[in-house]
Write a structure and sequence with these properties.
- The complex is a heterodimer of chains A (about 325) and B (about 325).
- Chain A has about 325 residues and is mostly helical.
- Chain A folds into two domains: about 70 residues, no CATH class; about 230 residues, MetI-like (MetI-like fold), CATH 1.10.3720.
- In chain A, about 75% of the residues lie in helices and about 5% in strands.
- In chain A, the strands form two sheets. In chain A, strands 1-2 form a two-stranded antiparallel ribbon. A two-stranded antiparallel ribbon of chain A has the order 3-4.
- The longest helix of chain A has about 35 residues.
- Helix content of chain B is about 65%, strand content about 0%.
- Chain B starts with 20 loop residues before the first helix and ends in a 5-residue tail after the last helix.
- The N terminus of chain B is likely disordered.
- Classes of the chains: A mainly alpha (about 325), B mainly alpha (about 325).
- At the A-B interface, helix 1, helix 6, helix 7, helix 8 and helix 11 of A face helix 5, helix 6, helix 10, helix 11 and helix 12 of B.
């Protein structure tokens, strides 16, 4: 409860900082109109007055905040619709991509980490750790390009005349829903986006489980004759997974940033691409709305992780 | 994170001999991949330093020069696909006939110096604020940590893009977006994680006996912080700085790739990939080599960082 209350001033501070940064943009929210020859300086002045842009910055902020808490983030000039509507419309596509990546990263990353920790310093451990290093060092945009080049442009021959060739762009080929088509379009962006998180999770899982498996209570469990898998899954893993919750929450900003890049390269119609478009067209209101919503997402996931941590580990008290 | 096994010794092998330069090197050398990383990175640094001389070997001391003699329209293939061009274009050319090898060398210069300067800035600000927060505690600590909370809650890449976007609009052109501006913006956005790290060390260090002793003999706060406590907090800072060089190389090249970083015709690893994407079917080499440079460099730096972590403090988390 105290943690929840702490999140509110944090969000206020974030929005103030963002508002100050964005207000430095020349022309501000009116930039798109300044270029238009049909709009006279008198019109600009009138618009400025109507939008409250002639008032001091703190006053503008309070007005913006009052509207934002009611879900009104202003008008997106690049999409000609309200900001919130523009973002929420693209949200499902981003959720699909990020959700799929998170599932892949968690299942593959955590099992690789467990495997590494069960057989430490084995060949498999070296291979998995080496792979994790690759994931950590890989620039997502280039990895995405290479996936496109390898699996979408050229295709990989399987022999007997079969080829794996995946679609390289977009959400789907047809207007009607087709599960196979949707999944095929999802494969490459998901691989590109999940690689980094996968590497992080596997490294973290490995060190966390290794640490737990050296603990006294594990030795006690083994000593009283419990079979290895019981010790591993019921005693070891249960405790080793607790800190992983935090890591997953902390890695959310990485995933959001990665989604911006991945969506741009794979022409994925999500929030990230919307953001890049808004950036190119100087759509101030949308940039502000996007950054705020994304920060809210991060703050809440951290909060959720804290609560989950305290619930999973009774030793932790807030 | 506990130490990673690649070439690193078992914990049991690590002795308790006093920490010296010699023991440092002995431990670092045992991490074979870190040594390999150091070799690769040294090669990259040499390539960047002598970019001009190396590029001149192929006749393209100016990385923006177009090879009028050979270029006829499509990108020239690399040496192993067309042996007749070996003397001029080791790795081929891009779609407008500029030598890829020369551009990669000059790109290395940009990427490496930019990342290192940004890290120096990040470390200076982060260490200062982290030390103050950890040493004084109380409301100073509270205030500084809330500021880091703000920074750490906003995903860095979108914020970075907005800042560079605003800067270019203010100056009416993207070419104003030069080296110094990018370093400054990245440095300003990335110090909070360092501040957290330094604060954590200082919270425990300030309670230790030697800090107590330093206070007792009448040292000032500044002297205690910088002469007594900071040297003991250096190990995690060095490791973090090394890893952040790799992270910032990736971050900056992403910025270049999206068109909000170093602007063409200046060659950078990121912006070399912009046109390569649309041309990937005709000239795979123009898309593969710049990215490979980024990957190899960051991989080398990450291995070095891991080796440093093992060598500086085997028990470090």
């Amino acid at each position: 409860m105290r943690r929840t209350l702490q999140a509110i001033p944090l969000l206020l501070l974030i929005s103030m900082g963002l508002f100050w940064i964005i207000s430095n943009a020349p022309g501000g929210a009116l930039a798109p109109y300044l270029q238009n020859p049909h709009i006279t300086p008198a019109d600009i002045a009138r618009l400025k007055h109507n939008l409250g842009l002639d008032q001091p910055l703190p006053v503008q902020y309070v007005h913006w905040l009052a509207r934002a808490v009611r879900g009104d983030f202003g008008w997106s000039t690049s999409n000609s619709e309200p900001v919130l509507q523009a973002i929420l419309q693209r949200f499902p596509a981003t959720l699909e991509l990020m959700g799929a990546s998170l599932i892949v990263a968690l299942t593959v990353g955590l099992s690789a980490g467990i495997f590494s920790a069960v057989l430490p310093y084995s060949v498999w451990d070296y291979i998995i750790t080496g792979f994790a290093f690759f994931g950590q060092s890989m620039p997502i945009f280039w990895f995405a390009l290479m996936l496109q080049l390898g699996l979408a442009v050229h295709g990989i021959p399987l022999g007997f005349g079969y080829m794996i060739q995946l679609p390289s762009a977009g959400l789907s080929n047809s207007d009607t829903f087709n599960l196979g088509d949707r999944l095929a379009h999802l494969v490459l962006p998901t691989i590109a986006l999940s690689f980094l998180s996968l590497a992080l999770y596997s490294r973290f899982m490995r060190s966390s489980l290794l640490e737990v498996m050296n603990a006294d209570y594990i030795r006690t469990a083994s000593a009283k004759g419990l079979p290895f898998h019981t010790v591993l899954f019921k005693h070891g893993l249960k405790n080793a997974l607790i800190p992983v919750v935090t890591v997953v929450a902390i890695s959310l900003p990485t995933l959001i940033a990665g989604a911006v890049v991945t969506e741009t390269i794979f022409a994925w119609p999500g929030m990230g691409r919307l953001f890049i478009n808004a950036l190119q067209q100087g759509d101030i209101a949308l940039l502000m709305g996007y950054l705020c919503l994304v920060s809210v997402l991060v703050v809440f996931s951290n909060l959720l992780a804290d609560v989950a941590y305290a619930w999973l580990d009774p030793r932790v008290k807030y | 994170m506990a130490s990673i096994p690649l070439g690193s010794p078992n914990a049991a092998d690590l002795d308790d001999t006093p920490f010296t330069k010699v023991t440092f090197w002995r431990r670092f050398r045992r991490h074979r991949l870190a040594v390999a990383g150091l070799v690769v990175l040294s090669a990259m640094v040499l390539g960047a330093v002598f970019a001009h001389q190396l590029a001149a070997l192929g006749g393209f001391a100016d990385p923006n020069a177009i090879d009028e003699a050979h270029w006829t329209g499509p990108a020239l293939p690399p040496c192993f696909q067309n042996a007749s061009l070996c003397a001029h274009h080791l790795l081929g050319s891009d779609e407008v006939g500029r030598d890829l090898f020369a551009r990669l060398l000059f790109g290395a210069r940009i990427s490496l110096t930019l990342a290192v300067t940004a890290v120096l800035m990040e470390i200076s600000i982060g260490t200062l604020f982290g030390a103050i927060a950890g040493y004084y505690g109380g409301w100073v600590d509270y205030l500084l940590m809330r500021i880091t909370d703000v920074f750490l809650s906003i995903p860095i890449l979108p914020l970075l893009l907005v800042l560079t976007g605003i800067y270019t609009e203010q100056h009416q052109s993207k070419s104003a977006l030069n080296f110094g501006v990018i370093v400054f913006i990245i440095g300003i956005l990335s110090w909070p994680s360092v501040a957290r790290l330094v604060r954590a060390s200082f919270l425990t260090l300030r309670e230790r006996e030697f800090a107590e002793a330093a206070r007792a003999v009448g040292n000032g706060d500044g002297r205690i912080i910088f002469r007594h406590l900071l040297p003991n907090a250096v190990a995690p800072i060095v490791v973090q700085a090394t890893l952040d060089v790799a992270n910032i190389i990736i971050l900056e090249s992403t910025l270049d790739f999206l068109g909000f970083g170093i602007q063409p015709p200046t060659a950078s690893w990121g912006n070399m990939l912009v046109n390569a994407q649309s041309n990937v079917e005709q000239a795979w080499w123009a898309a593969v080599f710049p990215g490979l440079c980024i990957l190899v460099t960051t991989l080398a730096i990450n291995f070095i960082g891991d080796g440093l972590r093992d060598a500086l403090d085997p028990n470090m988390n």
